[in-house]
Design a protein that fits this description.
The structure is a homodimer of 460-residue chains.
Chain A (H helix, E strand, L loop, with lengths): L3 H14 L4 E5 L5 E4 L2 E2 L6 H7 L7 E5 L4 E5 L5 H7 L5 H7 L4 E3 L4 H4 L6 E3 L5 H10 L5 H6 L3 H12 L3 H24 L6 H15 L2 E2 L4 E3 L19 E6 L1 E2 L8 E6 L6 H20 L6 H18 L7 H7 L26 H5 L26 E4 L2 E3 L2 H10 L8 H4 L7 E3 L2 E5 L4 E3 L9 H9 L1
Parallel strand pairs in A: 1-7, 5-6
Antiparallel strand pairs in A: 1-4, 2-3, 4-5, 8-11, 9-10, 10-12, 13-16, 14-15, 16-17
Helix pairs in contact in A: 1-8, 9-10, 9-17, 11-12, 12-13
């Protein structure tokens, strides 16, 4: 938690950005695992954390802009609670720590929203909060709830949260430190015969030991070409690559997100090293390019350029670079975007709408396969925090589909590409902060990334 | 997952127990963490697992008893899914593996429930499933949804799930094996200066490495007297005790649940050893006593007896045992129950109603403080799996309350008790299986439990 002044200032800025009406921020409740009393580890809503800072369940916050009043809504502990949970600070004291004077019990929440007033709320992603909004604001169904959120509030929240302040950057560095430890652990364990599950579990343990949790479900697999892959049933086999995409959420809820691809046992084949170095070049050129004023879309396109030219050098593709980029050729090998904003969420503010976060009037999302998957395309500004995560994958089903449909056959040497059907995939990912003049890595120690560094890390 | 025959048989038995109408079992969906695309690790509903065995999100099962038909409801993967997720078996093939022939897309679920038929459903604990039930069955609100569940179906499910079959016992043993490893790790790390968070994180990593997850949020704290305690912010200090209540969910979703209390650095004080040995005697006598035909209520009462007499021997309480037990004196020191059923849930079937699971016409729940917290009181039968978890705690707020209100002052030497206000608490917990003749530990290796064994485990 930050100092009171931080939260007061954020709410003041929010008040300036939303003209009138009532702002309602719902905190999260507990999320049941297999029965109500056995819950997943509690996670507060990120926007609630940003403006209110309190991380206990069942709270809400109201900013009544018209009357210049604010309220924290929640219930004080009972004597029974104190017997079972020990002496905890009262809600009133906790509210005061973040600069809120009025605490109102939950039973009065409905009253605060009465009358013919505009109530601004953010699109709720949890079923509980969808149900609460429906009840509080008399919405007929879930569809109405998720459609009638406030675009004005959404844009205001994104505007504030997207630029990271110095105290937030310290937290992101801390999350980076934990993510670093996770990946070093994974590299050391990357030996033949070890199970993916065991490594994934151990690095999740590192995250929980030092922070709150993993910032997203760890991807750790020899099948790096399967992009949506949370299976950990494999046993590491010699000659294969282990792709690890993992990060931590630190104690103050900020995220890190790194990817490294490691040869099992620590020795690359020539083929693996060639692909690795193309991806590494795409990453390094992206980092060199990222600076205020440039669009991240352009950085993504340049990464595609590096990948196309790298693959051309080893004979997998052919033809003119610009023509190939316009035709979307690199999408076959890297069907995802170069990166995304990161902060209190690993895909920062994805609940508020990816396009609101990553695009604006000056920068529209592309429609072409590959390009269209870029989550963040707009012009970079100091204080943006982004991932940079190029990759090259050989997705058998996608290659078969493109070849069967004759897609880009003038650029792609399908016979050569099919020699890589058992390759898997390589992704490399770092986290950057846009500075006044360029960018820097969020965490100052970079994970091993050259083939030599990674080989040494595996061999310990 | 078990063999097809297991699931077919379970559903056949269910059909016999529910006379008519339609049984609707909803599987779980993904549970969003901080946005829809970032979810908690998926957990299937336990009753769905028990009867259907499939652990992917967004499934439902219908048993139409009147027409002797059954359906799995869910959607097949699209070509896009296959590109991103790899080749996975079709839902039709997966259904066949558990003996279900008809697979119906989600869009047809409403049709299957049409007409004036009785639809039996279990009380839903997740907001998503509450919303689904409301929509599918035209309930007006959440209250109606949770109140109008089928008692007939609930009792049938409990009847079947409560008696563990041989294949389930193997899974419970496996969960015990993982829980054992978690606790040995915790004991070794129980050194001055180590943070509770670090140890809790590492043992959670052990659970995820070898199984699915922790079976419940780990309690690991020097403040063992705070019963509802998930705070891990302490740094272990010499002279204190670390109470660790933790268990694993294995890959097939079965739970373990053990508690050990360990002196930081590995040396007990005399005072700690005395209390420890009373709790240990209560545990050992309970295990010796548990057998078919006895009520678990009686075992709980005997544990209270051991605790009362043990505390009397060291001067904390006085008076006649039977009178003290009737007056509820031990509740001050052990305000919780002796144990609970365990299976696919760590508190088995708590979603279906604790009283349905643990009590029946022959055994009513007590109303007196302490006794009333016993989750499972009824007569034991072969195949029951239960925790045995006596404890002695010195809860300052509770002691103050009782003394101020003069509760049981004829039995309690409050001045002596107050010498223990900084003691914390000790709980010891093992998991037992009721056999034909008595009971045995579910996992055949018992965690270190005598003071000497625990001291040795800490010192490695």
């Amino acid at each position: 938690m930050f100092s009171k002044e931080v939260y007061v200032k954020r709410r003041e800025e929010l008040k300036k950005l939303v003209n009138s009406g009532i702002v309602l921020l719902l905190g999260n409740g507990e999320a049941p695992l297999n029965y109500s009393g056995n819950t997943y580890s509690f996670r507060q809503d990120s926007s609630f954390l940003y403006f209110v800072g309190l991380d206990t369940p069942d709270l809400a916050y109201i900013l009544d802009i018209d009357n210049n009043k604010e309220y924290l809504i929640g219930d004080e502990l009972t004597i029974d609670d104190i017997i079972w949970m020990g002496n905890l600070p009262s809600l009133k004291d906790r509210a005061a720590e973040v600069g809120i004077q009025s605490v109102v019990p939950t039973s009065e929440l409905t009253n605060l929203l009465k009358g013919n007033r505009t109530v601004h709320y953010l699109k709720p992603y949890r079923y509980r909060n969808q149900m609460m909004i429906a009840e509080l604001l008399n919405k007929n169904n879930r569809e109405q709830v998720v459609n009638e959120y406030s675009i004005e509030l959404t844009k205001a929240v994104i505007k504030l949260r997207l630029i990271k302040s110095p105290e937030e950057i310290l937290e992101l560095e801390d999350a980076g430190r934990i993510g670093y430890a996770m990946h070093i652990t994974a590299m050391k364990m990357c030996q033949p015969g070890v199970s993916e599950r065991e490594i994934a579990g151990m690095i999740e343990g590192v995250a929980i030991s030092a922070g709150n949790r993993v910032s997203f479900a760890t991807i750790l697999s020899m099948n790096g070409q399967t992009l949506h892959n949370h299976d950990h049933s494999g046993i590491l086999a010699p000659g294969r690559l282990m792709l690890t995409d993992a990060g931590a959420e630190n104690v103050n809820y900020y995220a890190s997100d790194f990817t490294r691809t490691t040869p099992v046992g620590g020795n690359y084949t020539q083929k693996q090293k060639e692909i690795h170095n193309i991806v590494l070049q795409a990453l390094n050129e992206s980092v060199a390019m990222a600076c205020p004023g440039i669009k991240y879309k352009a950085v993504h396109r340049n990464a595609y350029k590096v990948i196309f030219e790298g693959l051309r050098a080893i004979g997998l593709v052919k033809g003119d670079t610009e023509e190939a980029l316009n035709a979307g050729v690199p999408g076959l090998f890297m069907p995802h975007g170069l990166g995304h904003a990161m902060g209190l969420d690993v895909h920062d503010m994805e609940d508020l709408g990816e396009t609101f976060v990553g695009y604006d009037e000056d920068t529209q999302r592309d429609t072409m396969f590959g390009y269209r998957s870029l989550r963040f395309g707009k012009q970079l500004e100091p204080g943006h925090v982004l991932t940079v995560e190029p990759g090259i994958y050989f997705v058998p089903q996608l290659i078969q589909k493109w070849e069967a449909e004759g897609i880009n056959s003038e650029f792609i040497n399908y016979n050569k590409v099919k020699e890589y059907l058992d390759f898997g995939g390589i992704r490399l990912e770092d986290d950057i902060l846009i500075t006044d003049t360029g960018c820097r890595f969020v965490y100052n120690k970079r994970l091993p990334i050259t083939p030599e560094e990674i080989e040494n890390a595996v061999k310990g």
